[in-house]
Amino acid sequence: LGLSELLLVHAVGSGVGTAALQLGLQAGARVIGTSRSEDKLARCQALGLADGLLVTDKTFAKALAGKSGGAGADVILDLVGAAYLAENVAALASRGRVVVVGLLGGATAELPLGALLAKRGQIFGTVLRSRGLEEKASLAQAFTRHALPLFAAGKLKPIVDSVLPMSEVRQAHQRMEKNDSFGKIVLRW
């Protein structure tokens, strides 16, 4: 992510979304986020979100074009997956990048290759779980070097919705499924 780039964060009120918002701001990006909740967008604006897009019908490219002067997003952090693929490509700026880190909206979709080629766009997928131990250790060390000082300086903060005992895991899942949480739900063992 480069200085002054436009970062679009889907599900910006989630735990990963609120972290991405804060990290994007620290990198010097202008951050716009999507949510299915006006309340979550307002809470994210208090964290520094430049603009929010209420997404009720899985469309957002036209609204983003209006907020970006028609340029689109330089980087899109996608926590949704298949349901947003075509709109992500439509929302990309020239030479933009889509980083897929979640598949809550499905794992299979048609890719509008003509639009992707015309924008010279790139799509990346990433996951931590399947990486080797050495790579995970390297990432943890990079996090320690780069992010922990920002936490210590108060520039990053964890956004915790609630802390529940493990015995209430069902209630935690219900809260997430109803889209009632903001930030992370933590389970205490």
What is the strand and helix layout of this fold?
Layout: E1 6-9, H1 15-26, E2 30-35, H2 38-45, E3 51-54, H3 61-67, E4 73-78, H4 85-91, E5 92-100, H5 113-119, E6 122-125, H6 133-146, H7 148-152, E7 160-165, H8 169-177, E8 184-188
Parallel strand pairs: 1-2, 1-4, 2-3, 4-5, 5-6, 7-8
Sheet with the most strands? 6 strands, parallel
Mean pLDDT: 96
Low-confidence stretches: none
Strand order of the largest sheet: 3-2-1-4-5-6
Overall radius of gyration: 17 Å
Question: Could you explain the architecture of this structure?
Answer:
By secondary structure, the protein is an alpha/beta fold. The protein has 8 helices and 8 strands, in the order βαβαβαβαβαβααβαβ. It has helices at residues 15-26, 38-45, 61-67, 85-91, 113-119, 133-146, 148-152, 169-177; strands at 6-9, 30-35, 51-54, 73-78, 92-100, 122-125, 160-165, 184-188. The strands form 2 sheets. A 6-stranded parallel β-sheet has the order 3-2-1-4-5-6, with helices on both faces. Helix 3 (61-67) packs parallel to helix 4. It is globular, with a radius of gyration of 17 Å. The model has no long low-confidence stretch (mean pLDDT 96).
